Amino acid sequence: MRWRKSTRRGRTGRSHHSVLVVGLLAFALGCPAADDRTAGNDPQAAPSGGETTTPRPNGTGTRPPGGNAWVIFGADTVVAEIAATADERAQGLMYREDVPDGTGMLFVFQDNASRAFWMANTYVPLDIAYMDPSYRVVDIVPMEPLVTDTYPSSGPAMFALEVRQGWFEEHGIRVGAQPEIVFGIGGPR
Q: Which of left, alpha, beta for 171 (phi over 0: left; psi -120 to 50: alpha)?
């Protein structure tokens, strides 16, 4: 899946302030508050050996590895690769033969704006959930393989989660759902 910049209104340049804000956000997401780290009270802190584990059903456990995130919708978790740079977003899930159940890609943007994706060189049917800055799902759109028309969001989004087509419906996830997102050590790249 390849992200295509929407032709709708929006800024076309990158300001140094945007880059700084994204860097600070990435750092903040990767660092728990000091009081959470004391006396082993952070249930998502990485183990001392640097290993990672899969999330437990009750939401406790270590963080996912860097470059990944857990997108947790109640009892259902998507283990997502993070696409935070322009190159990663452009590549997306292109050229993949399969997107296993419970996996996907989380696209992270610098701002909250209208988004549009296309399926050039993407062989697997996907669903995309556009999310606002608070992770609330604002739109879920099914996308067909190899289609070069865009699939726009119905409103501004700062995040987009792609999964195998039908996954959201099978798990009862609808517009308005608000997952918890646990970024890997270091947050989005």
A: alpha
